[in-house]
Amino acid sequence: MEQYIFQLGAFAAERDITLTPFAQMLMVLPVMEAVGDDREFDIEIAIKSAYDLIAEMSGDGPVRRNSQDVIEAFYKRFCKIPPFCRGG
After folding, report:
1. Is 45 part of any domain?
2. Which of 13, 29, 44, 51 is deepest in the core (most CB within 10 A)?
3. For 27-86, how does the pLDDT look when each residue is reduced to its tens digit (9 = 90+)?
4. Are 46 and 83 in contact (CB under 8 A)?
5. Residue 31 falls inside a structural domain
6. How far apart are alpha carbons 42 and 47 in whole angstroms?
7. Bridge-partner residues for 19, per DSSP?
8. Which pLDDT value is given to residue 42?
9. The whole model's pTM is what?
10. Pick the residue with more confidence: 6 or 39?
11. Is residue 84 domain-resident?
12. pLDDT confidence of residue 88
């Protein structure tokens, strides 16, 4: 889990994005829940998906992203962000 959180921050910094605390929470909660489940979970796939979501939220120059921006990125990338999509 720590690796995911570290990578999330690194990806945001690469794209010159500042995530609000609630935006960070929205990106971490599904991973925390999946890690807590008794099913198999590949953190590397989650890290790749975090990279894709951060890329979706990037802009020209420094930007600050909030929870609404994360929800919009989830919407735009849904079923392209494994391991969370189950079909479709």
Report:
1. yes
2. 51
3. 999 888 888 877 777 888 889 989 999 999 998 889 999 999 999 998 887 766 666 565
4. yes
5. yes
6. 9
7. 65
8. 84
9. 0.80
10. 6
11. no
12. 46
Domain count, the chain: 1
- Helices 21-36, 67-77: axis angle to 10 degrees equals 50
Q: For residue 82, which phi and psi values (nearest 5 degrees)?
A: -65, 155
Helix (H) or strand (E) run with residue 17 in it: strand 17-19
Domain range for 31: 2-77
CA separation for the pair 84, 32 (Å, rounded): 12
The CATH number of whichever domain residue 56 belongs to comes to 1.10.8
- Domain membership flag for residue 88: no
Angle in degrees, CA 69, 6, 86, rounded to 5: 55
Q: How far apart are CA 18 and CA 25, in angstroms?
A: 13
